[in-house]
Design a protein that fits this description.
Helix content: 55-70%
Shape: rod-shaped
Mean pLDDT: 81
Low-confidence stretches: none
Structural class: mainly alpha
CATH architecture of the largest domain: Up-down Bundle
CATH class of the largest domain: Mainly Alpha
Radius of gyration: 30 Å
CATH topology of the largest domain: Four Helix Bundle (Hemerythrin (Met), subunit A)
Number of domains: 2
Order of helices and strands: HHHHHHHHHHH
Number of strands: 0
Number of helices: 11
Distance between the termini: 31 Å
Amino acid sequence: MRSISALAILSASAHLERIEVLIKEWGASGDERKDLSQNMDNKIRLNIASSFAELRDSADAMGVPLTGIAASRAVDKLRARKTPITYKELGAINADVRSRFQDEVVSINMYCLPKGLADYYSSSEPIFGIEVDDRIPASADDIGEAGKCLAVGRFTASVFHLMRALEVAVQHLSLTLGIDNVDKEWGKLLSEMHGKIEVMPKGAERDAWSESHANLYHVKQAWRNGTMHPKRTYTEEEAKEVLLATRTFMRSLARLIPSSVQ
């Protein structure tokens, strides 16, 4: 899905309207100065050329190429010093660009991301943090897709991507704890992990593993049932809960995985 700046569309519309108003005002009756057959003053002509150049940039940002071509053609005509331009000719130039813009923009459907969810779609950093991406790189794509799905309202798809990311994380967890077979019902798997953690010497490391185990249990409660089958659909609130629970678990796990385990 292409991201289009609402400001670009607003800027393009405002530019075309501004030129239209200028021409109408200049051609208003009752004032001999406002003769549309007059050549435009060079300063005004170059200023309007700059406006068309801005419109061309907005057209590029919006993905409306014919408007951009028409705007470029307008810039060339207005900046050609040996070719005087009258206000009537400016009107024709503007009408051409305006027509292209109206034809193209009607085919664009814009979708607004809800406030507070946009960062999940185009975050400048991994949504679970850089450490998770570095230590569990195989999960990075699914984590990113989970965020995008959440942002665009595909809540069930978001949870399914989180499942895939979590499967990778559980494999890392099992490998680090010395558990070979992860094809078990989650309750049994959690019980086996608990047993591995309980025999660790008491101390900070064991506490960290216990915390990670507790976080994994919370994820299980958020979206897994006893037979490892997910729900059929998820609401926005449920998807957010799963994402936050998964993020908490994977962040705690990333701190425990040795750099040699990738």
